[in-house]
Amino acid sequence: MTRTSAPRRSARERLLTAANELFYREGVHTVGIDRIIEHAGVAKASLYNTFGSKDELVRAYLEFRHDRVRRRVERHLAGSATPRDRLLAVFDAQAEGFAHPDYNGCPFISACAESPEGSSAERAARHYRTWLRDLFTGFAAEAGVADPSALARQLHLLYDGASVAAGLDGDPTAAAAARTAAVTFIDTAPRAGD
Length: 194
Prior knowledge:
By secondary structure, the protein is mostly helical. It has helices at 11-26, 33-40, 44-50, 54-77, 83-98, 107-114, 120-142, 148-169, 174-188. Helix 4 (54-77) crosses helix 5 and helix 5 (83-98) packs antiparallel against helix 7 (120-142). It is elongated and about 65 Å long. It starts with 10 loop residues before the first helix and ends in a 6-residue tail after the last helix. The relative contact order is 0.12.
């Protein structure tokens, strides 16, 4: 019987995997390029040819994290029949993330706390936060809320608070508590035409 070996991952994939593991666990500025290169098993030139700089690797890492959250949210949205259900599904997806044993807080908050203003990390975090706020705003509008932006802001604050509590307090139930509060905000929000 012949064994089929798994295809070798590209240098980009290995660098991104190493960055994801190390940056998320230890922080974007405490982990040096040499550790990432060693962990990925690539040459230093591969990092610079692929990403150009550590700052761009941090951006790619945060885009990778954003994509993971987006896919998790989309899975939860697939089973949602109403706009209200879709608003709450975002918190269900968050709860799934918190349940992972390696959950270490919000990677966007962590990276921004370590990065200077105007950095790639800040831009990637802003892009992620805009995506999340737009998601809440769109579902709130579909639900017929009179001020979808105001409800989206409230829900986003709950989402952020749950992320901080889950990370700092080690509380995987924070998303469920935020979801319960979200129900109140959603159900009591004035409707258009009221």
